[in-house]
Write a structure and sequence with these properties.
By secondary structure, the chain is an alpha/beta fold. It is built from six helices and eight strands; from the N terminus they run E-H-E-H-E-H-E-E-H-E-H-E-H-E. The chain has a single domain, classed as Aldolase class I (TIM Barrel), CATH 3.20.20.70.
Length: 183
């Protein structure tokens, strides 16, 4: 039987990158408590601009002790010097080579997939209404907790998260785009 490596210590607070918060990312990353997490997505940029922007933000994260996670493959994460990967559970790799793997989940099926892939954490969303997906249904507190109870790893709340909504949800770990990017 495969022996599971101990999970790394995961930050409680996570900032996700997006086209909407790109202009304020440096400021937002500097304001985060030391040792927070940063998920770099930036799907909106062409490849050469995406990697250039990554290097700038990665250097800032390293100086602040933030955990850097790339929304891409494990191979790309290693090439770019990221400390982890972020994506759908089925995209996770068993040969993680020391990378933190964060699965995204929106349903019981995806929580089960994250469990089978032995993700280090799962980002469960959308907890509340979010600008990322206007008008889309959200989980709400009760359903979020029901799904989170089935995860065999730490759960990070995402979607409409701010300090106030995290407190209301009772989430130890939470992530945001707008909620951590406003000036």
């Amino acid at each position: 039987m495969h022996q599971r490596q101990p999970r790394p210590e995961l930050p409680n607070l996570w900032l996700l990158s997006d086209a909407r918060n790109d202009i304020v990312l440096e400021t937002a990353l500097k304001r985060l408590p030391r040792g927070s997490g940063f998920v770099y997505r930036h799907y909106h940029l062409p490849p050469h601009e995406r990697i250039a922007r990554w290097w700038t933000l990665r250097d800032l994260c390293l100086a602040r002790g933030h955990l850097t996670v790339l929304a891409d493959s494990a191979l790309t994460a290693r090439e770019w010097g990221a400390e982890g990967t972020y994506g759908a559970p089925l995209a996770l790799y068993p040969q993680r080579a020391g990378l933190v793997q964060i699965a995204t989940a929106h349903s019981m099926r995806e929580i089960a997939q994250a469990n089978r892939k032995r993700a280090d954490a799962v980002m469960l969303s959308p907890a509340f209404a979010t600008r990322s997906h206007p008008g889309a249904p959200c989980l709400g507190s009760v359903r979020w907790h029901l799904l989170a109870a089935h995860a065999q790893m730490p759960v990070i709340a995402l979607g409409g998260m701010t300090t106030q909504t995290a407190r209301r949800l009772g989430a130890q770990r939470w992530a945001a785009i707008d909620g951590l990017s406003s000036l």
